[in-house]
């Protein structure tokens, strides 16, 4: 934590983000405010690419945009020449409106509607990841009716679970996602796709979970996917052009977190693949949190304070669970600093409370800070993933603005909602 503070502190004791004083951003755009350091995003993408090149693996880095999906981030991904994956018609629409090339889009989701599948086909998305038998049937009908063809992958549940929060585990057999391998569902699905003249099966996909720190699960997944591919080849004469290992690479939210580097992860995966397979397919990964999470900051203005004799004080901010639901939903942990007092000594321990009318709206428990006063700016670190994308209007609070900073320049990429925005869909009775 100290290294982070020293790295980001300006000469006047303010938090600097992408070469811009965070207190200036707070004054200019208001709070709560999401701020992204774009250079950090670019560096992380390039670290994945470099690691693949070092290990001489054919690859694609596909940004899992559910982590953060606005037009501006899709435009950054286009500039960095990566793929993206989307999980809804809304994310697909946003990517297309941002000018992102449709041929570099993967369409995920466990219950895609006929309308969403039709939208994907009409816009010529690069690949549709099929999740269940209904989707195979719906897509087959759409392709036949429109006389079009599309590339597909099969999402599999290979029976490997990640050691994370139970809601973040998606690769084990008992999951709402994908075709189960053990029961034979995956093989049955492959037969159906191979028999459809309008579907080109590009490869197989699996995702074992989120916020994973070790490499063991990914190494086991790589080995398992090759085993599955070999069984498909021997029984159905099919060898995948692509094996997609999903995402889930953890980031450091607190000093207790010890994430693996892109180089470590990809090198160990590469070693395993080359050990079990002579003809390694192209490898795709889908990092989301690890690309945008560490690049994001949420700025709040400190407001009221509640002191209770013998207990930890509560320090309230002008946001909370509406702009970061993860602490309430997952008991997620974060670190924070007082952006205008980075050079002052920590003197007290407080709970950071949100403004929402819920007792569970606590952003951070037992945070050690300098002495504060109303109007000071609190900066919560590493909030780039699943903050804005999960934001809501609970208590009829407008959603915060989003600012990108790079090379000392700041740009508003999502304006703050107004009260008028909150009622624009309401009708009278």
From TrEMBL:
Lineage, broadest ranks: Bacteria, Bacillati, Bacillota, Bacilli, Lactobacillales
Binding positions for pyridoxal 5'-phosphate per the UniProt entry: 248, 286-289, 386
HAMAP family: LysA
Domain Orn/DAP/Arg decarboxylase 2 N-terminal: 39-292
Enzyme class: lyase
EC annotation from Swiss-Prot or TrEMBL: 4.1.1.20
Gene Ontology terms describing biological process: lysine biosynthetic process via diaminopimelate
Pathway annotation: Amino-acid biosynthesis; L-lysine biosynthesis via DAP pathway; L-lysine from DL-2,6-diaminopimelate: step 1/1
Listed SUPFAM superfamilies: Alanine racemase C-terminal domain-like (SSF50621), PLP-binding barrel (SSF51419)
Protein encoded by which gene: lysA
Protein name as catalogued: Diaminopimelate decarboxylase
Swiss-Prot/TrEMBL cofactor(s): pyridoxal 5'-phosphate
Record PTM N6-(pyridoxal phosphate)lysine, positions in chain: 66
Binding partners and assembly: Homodimer.
Organism from which the protein derives: Companilactobacillus suantsaicola
InterPro entries noted in UniProt: Ala_racemase/Decarboxylase_C, DAP_deCOOHase_LysA, De-COase2_N, Orn/DAP/Arg_de-COase, PLP-binding_barrel
Function recorded in the entry: Specifically catalyzes the decarboxylation of meso-diaminopimelate (meso-DAP) to L-lysine.
Keyword set, alphabetical order: Amino-acid biosynthesis, Decarboxylase, Lyase, Lysine biosynthesis, Pyridoxal phosphate
Family affiliation: Belongs to the Orn/Lys/Arg decarboxylase class-II family. LysA subfamily.
GO MF: diaminopimelate decarboxylase activity; pyridoxal phosphate binding
Active site as annotated: 357
Amino acids binding substrate: 289, 326, 330, 358, 386
Catalysed transformations (reactions): meso-2,6-diaminopimelate + H(+) = L-lysine + CO2
UniProt cross-references to NCBIfam families, sorted A to Z: lysA
Top-level taxon of the source organism: Bacteria
């Amino acid at each position: 934590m100290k290294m982070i503070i020293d790295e980001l502190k300006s000469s006047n004791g303010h938090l600097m983000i992408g070469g811009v004083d965070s207190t200036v951003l707070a004054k200019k755009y208001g709070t709560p405010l999401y701020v992204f350091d774009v250079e950090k995003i670019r560096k992380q993408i390039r670290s994945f690419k470099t690691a693949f090149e070092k290990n001489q693996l054919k690859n694609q880095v596909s940004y899992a945009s559910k982590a953060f999906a606005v037009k501006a981030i899709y435009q950054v991904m286009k500039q960095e020449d990566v793929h993206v994956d989307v999980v809804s018609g809304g994310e697909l629409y946003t990517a297309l409106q941002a000018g992102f090339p449709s041929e570099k889009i993967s369409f995920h989701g466990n219950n895609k509607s006929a309308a969403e599948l039709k939208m994907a086909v009409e816009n010529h998305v690069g690949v549709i990841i099929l999740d269940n038998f209904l989707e195979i049937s719906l897509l087959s009908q759409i392709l036949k009716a429109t006389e079009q063809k599309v590339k597909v992958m099969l999402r599999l549940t290979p029976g490997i679970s990640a050691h994370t929060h139970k809601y973040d585990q998606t690769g084990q057999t008992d999951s709402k996602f994908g075709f189960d391998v053990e029961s034979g569902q995956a093989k049955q699905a492959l037969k159906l796709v191979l028999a459809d003249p309008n579907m080109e099966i590009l490869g197989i996909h699996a995702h074992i979970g989120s916020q994973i720190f070790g490499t063991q699960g990914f190494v086991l997944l790589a080995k398992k996917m090759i085993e599955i591919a070999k069984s498909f080849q021997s029984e159905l004469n099919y060898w995948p052009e692509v094996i997609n290992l999903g995402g889930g690479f953890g980031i450091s939210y607190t000093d207790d977190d010890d994430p693996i580097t892109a180089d470590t992860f990809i090198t160990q995966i590469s070693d395993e693949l080359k050990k079990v397979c002579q003809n390694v397919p192209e490898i795709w990964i889908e990092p989301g949190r690890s690309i945008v999470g560490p690049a994001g900051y949420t700025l709040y203005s400190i407001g009221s304070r509640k002191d209770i004799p013998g207990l930890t004080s509560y320090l309230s901010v002008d946001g909370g669970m509406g702009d970061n639901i993860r602490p309430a939903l997952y008991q997620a942990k974060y670190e924070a600093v007082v952006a205008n007092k980075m050079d002052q000594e920590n003197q007290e321990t407080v709970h950071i409370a949100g403004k929402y009318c819920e007792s569970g709206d606590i952003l951070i428990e037992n945070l050690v800070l300098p002495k504060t006063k109303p109007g000071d700016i609190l900066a919560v670190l590493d909030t780039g993933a699943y903050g804005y994308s999960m934001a809501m209007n609970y208590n009829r609070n407008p959603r915060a603005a989003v600012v990108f900073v790079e090379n000392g320049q700041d740009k508003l990429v999502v304006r703050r909602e107004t009260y008028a925005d909150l009622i624009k869909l309401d009708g009278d009775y």
